[in-house]
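INTERNAL AUDIT FORM
Audit reference: QA-55
Scope: verify that the stored structure record matches its stored sequence.
Auditor: D.O.
Record contents follow.
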Amino acid sequence: MKIGLSKKMSIAALAFLIPLLTVAQEKQPPLELTLDGAIRIALSENPSVKVADLEVQKKKYAKRSSHSALYPQIDIVGQYSRTLKKQVMYMDGAFGGDMFAPIISGIEETLANHTDYEISTNPKEPGELAKNIGKNTPPSDPNQGISVGRDNNWTGGLQLNWPVVVPTLWKSLEISSLDVELAVESARSSKINMVHSVRKAYYGVLLAKDALHVFQESHDNAVLSYNDIRNKFKQGVVSEFDLIRADVNVKNIKPNLIQAQNAYNLATLSLKALMGVDMEQEIAIPGSLLDYEEGLYAEVLALDTSLDDNSDLKKFDIQTEQLQKTLQLYKAQFLPTIAITGNYTYMSMNNDFRFGDYKWNPYSTVSLNISIPLFDGFKKTNDIRQTKATIEQMKWQREDVVRNLQLAVNSNVNNMTNYVEQVFSTKDVVAQAKKGYEISQKLYDTGMGTLLDLNTAQLGLTQASLAFTQAIYNFLTSKADLDKTLGIGAEGAQVTSDFFKVTSDE
């Protein structure tokens, strides 16, 4: 009974705690983000940035792989071959005199050192000595060949190949180094684009937040006016027509408020997607676009429109340098190459598989190989001409890119100047519209104004407030576009490879 009661109490405790834990998880505080914090999270979590960093790693490994060609290449080699039919060697000339001297000397040495050779007196059954003499004696007939070699041939050893003077290899290594530079610049470009996208998304959230605040304030004012008019209608001070118009005004503002709320939610989701964070993670964006209004004019005065850090131009310059190195590589193909090769090999030739009885004979060679190109059907000449034409194309293409970039810079600067003027003018309009709304409200309360005047003043205040925040947003997005073109990252800092560290195993 006690055990059963204990189990019931445990189950009841769990049933009570689980909802509490769920509520605690649901009420986690939102992640508060500044612009700098959002950019840093995006640069560390966004997949496209990680892909760009891995591309740099790939190019570094490729560069190291190409440098390995400068070192000696040493291989262990081995070979077995089975002789199916032996080669036949023919010897011309007289067989006598000095030619048989080595054979006779060998027979005498064998008789002197060995006594176990059988010497048969029967010509039909030759002994071991006679067989040995027969094997080592060339045929007297020059048309009769000698079989050469044995059934099993074994070789094994080391081979060396060392390129000493290879001009084309040296130039290709320089091109590999430029590949790494191009990958680093591409990664920098990817991060500049990411900073640009995050800044515009962050400003978009602030714009949606401010618009939501404007519509919420307009809705609250309309509801407040409706409640006031309803009370006056009950007292018989205002007509039913004013009550109906106040109610219609509240209901007309409600869809705009809902649309503003949806726009804010969508802008927040877009920012989270760019940052690479969990879409379920709640975020909070402090402040508003009004916080940026004070420094707009100073930013226009401090503009530097130099294109020295533009990523597209830097990549163009690296690619042009690669073509120059490729041209030098093709020219280097006319130069001779020198390489050292060598081997140290053991060889054994046998007619059986008694490995313990094998005799292994070593031999080694070292050679200096020189290759001088003479004629290849004018291939190298045409490759040089083609590369020169490509370099000329890159020159004209770069000029066209510079013109387009200068056009984009001038357009952004002009837009920023216009938006600054809009900010200043709409700020005055907002102040006047707010003052007009307050006057209309007082006039209506005293019976000197109409509800139509009050609603018109409210609409003018809403439109002026939206135009004010929109002008600030337009300026900030134009500034972000300009910074992207100029190669500037977050907080006005130059986005260089030192600013964004690339993970490396070095």
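Auditor finding: record pair retrieved intact. The two ends are 68 Å apart (CA to CA).
Action required: none
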